[in-house]
Design a protein that fits this description.
Layout lengths: L1 H15 L9 H15 L2 H20 L16 E4 L5 E7 L9 E8 L5 E5 L11 E10 L2 E10 L5 E12 L2 E4 L9 E7 L7 E3 L4 E10 L4 E14 L2 E4 L2
């Protein structure tokens, strides 16, 4: 039965290219319908489809016109973030697989100082990248320079989850992950039990990043019930903890 469904899906793929490619938002409709099929298929068929879905998405990112495309239909299936200065977009979606870790795909698309449109796979960052679903994108300023604060959330087996905060900068025609901007650390990683709320947020007016912190219990592998609200103030030297 799965083979029949897979063959039917391949036929749909072939036929999709015969549809009106001159329509104004062909890219949006094609990607939207592809992801809709991916999310509605059973797990076995979704597994077959995954590599094709990823390749099709990347092929569209390579088309620089995708940067200005609002992707209204695709945004129902893929989380799309946009910075307030219009120079950065993020895309993320959850992989459908049989593992207990929740795998994701995360990409950043950006405009360089020369006007070029580029993108990177955030999962392939040199320092490693926790599997997260992007939950927020904020433009911040440090010494009048533009940086991009990206929030993420993820989980991997067990009864815990985590939130992350990372800062990126567009320079030298590429995207760089900034170092030492969180009290000398390159990123924030906040863990908690799945029943606990991390509430990682950034107040752009007060320039304060806050979250709930829970003590990690080595003997159990879980977190204590008591929470502490941590606040970090954005300064010329990055985020500094408010005592």
């Amino acid at each position: 039965m799965h083979k029949v469904l897979y063959i039917a899906y391949l036929l749909l793929i072939c036929n999709s290219y015969t549809f009106s490619q001159v329509e104004e938002n062909y890219s949006d409709e094609l990607l939207s319908s592809s992801f809709k099929l991916y999310h509605e298929a059973d797990m076995y068929l979704a597994n077959y489809m995954y590599s094709f879905i990823k390749k099709r998405f990347i092929d569209h990112l390579k088309d620089t016109t995708s940067f200005s495309n609002p992707y209204d239909s695709l945004s129902k299936h893929v989380s799309i973030g946009r910075s307030s200065d219009g120079l950065m977009k993020t895309y993320s979606w959850s992989e459908r697989d049989f593992g207990c870790c929740h795998g994701t795909e995360t990409y950043a698309q950006f405009k360089t100082s020369s006007g070029s449109i580029k993108f990177i796979d955030l999962d392939e960052q040199p320092e490693g990248y926790e599997e997260v679903f992007i939950t927020g994108l904020q433009l911040i300023k440090i010494k009048k320079k533009s940086y991009y604060l990206i929030f993420g959330n993820g989980t991997c087996c067990g009864g815990t989850h985590y939130s992350t905060a990372r800062v990126y900068e567009i320079k030298e025609d590429t995207l760089h992950k900034s170092d030492s901007l969180f009290n000398t650390k390159s990123e924030l990683y906040i863990g908690a039990n799945r029943s606990q709320t991390i509430a990682l947020t950034y107040d752009s007016e007060k320039k304060i990043l806050s979250y709930n912190s829970y003590a990690y219990l080595d003997d159990t592998g879980f977190y204590a019930n008591m929470k502490t609200v941590i606040q970090l103030k954005l300064t010329d030297n990055g985020f500094q903890k408010i005592e």
